[in-house]
Design goal:
rod-shaped, mainly alpha, 2 helices, single chain, 87 residues
Length: 87
């Protein structure tokens, strides 16, 4: 039985820069504000809840009673929302 011919594949040559389109540059935005804001929101939320429990509900806002817990967790949730912008 005769052997089949081995086909030689052409070597890859990258396209030249003069004949092809230039790659679009990616503009990176400055996100140095994300980490401090995220940590500040976490800390504010935690302090809000701790102050509410330590003062038996008289601080930070006595008029909203147990909704102070929701406000504290709202700050913490906002911190998680900001954390999605971190790269």
């Amino acid at each position: 039985m005769p052997k089949s011919r081995i086909r030689k594949k052409a070597d890859y040559t990258p396209p030249t820069a003069t004949g092809s389109k230039q790659a679009a540059t990616i503009k990176l935005t400055n996100r140095s504000w994300v980490a401090p804001v995220m940590l500040a929101l976490f800390a504010i939320g935690l302090v809000w809840i701790v102050v509410f429990y330590v003062t038996d509900g008289t601080l930070p806002l006595k008029s909203i009673n147990n909704w102070n817990i929701v406000v504290g967790f709202g700050f913490i949730a906002a911190g998680f929302g900001v954390s999605t912008q971190w790269k």
